[in-house]
Amino acid sequence: MDYLKVSSKSSPASVAGAIAGLVKDGTPVNIQCVGAGAVNQAIKAVAIARGFLIPTGVDISCAPTFSDVEIGGESRTAIRIAVYVHRIVAPSSVAGSEAVDA
Question: Rounded to two decimals, what is the model's pTM?
Answer without folding.
Answer: 0.85
